[in-house]
Amino acid sequence: MRQDDSIGFIINQAGRRLSQLLAIRFAAFDLTTEQWSVLSRLCEQDGTSQKDLAVRVGKDQTNITRILDQLERKKLAERRTNPDDRRSFYAFVTDAGRDLQGRLVPIEQEVLASVTEEITEQQATILKELLIRLTNKTNELLQHYE
């Protein structure tokens, strides 16, 4: 089988190209797509542990620490010590972070609308359902290696 025919390759290419397009659009706001994913998750559930945030974003804790460091330098997020365990921290979005997220959501929606303009609503729904199933199955298989 040619690599171009591999569903894994096709999914990876689509994701990478979409991330590149978002990165171009977010560059004016000095925010990477990795930082965007963490900021968005914090806006959905503020005050979450770094461990839970790593799971929700799909990154390891080392990467989450690095991304939170960057978001803190930009004053978009902050970490506070867990009162029950001084070795762990909770991450919070700042007012500036929430404001930026609000400004970037329409840009993300515009990008997604432009790349899916030739896909019907029904096709988009099926695509999302299939990608969720693939992700869930992959997560299930990954648990065997953890």
Automatic annotation (TrEMBL):
- SMART domains to which the protein is assigned, alphabetical: HTH_MARR
Name of the protein described by the UniProt record: HTH marR-type domain-containing protein
Q: Which UniProt keywords apply?
A: DNA-binding, Transcription, Transcription regulation
Q: Which Pfam families match?
A: MarR (PF01047)
Name the source organism.
Cohnella kolymensis
InterPro entries from the UniProt entry:
HTH_MarR-typ, WH-like_DNA-bd_sf, WH_DNA-bd_sf
What lineage is on file? Bacteria, Bacillati, Bacillota, Bacilli, Bacillales
Identify the residues that the record assigns to the HTH marR-type domain, covering every copy. 4-136
Q: Which PANTHER family match?
A: TRANSCRIPTIONAL REGULATOR, MARR, TRANSCRIPTIONAL REPRESSOR OF EMRAB OPERON
Tell me the PROSITE patterns matching this sequence.
Answer: HTH_MARR_2
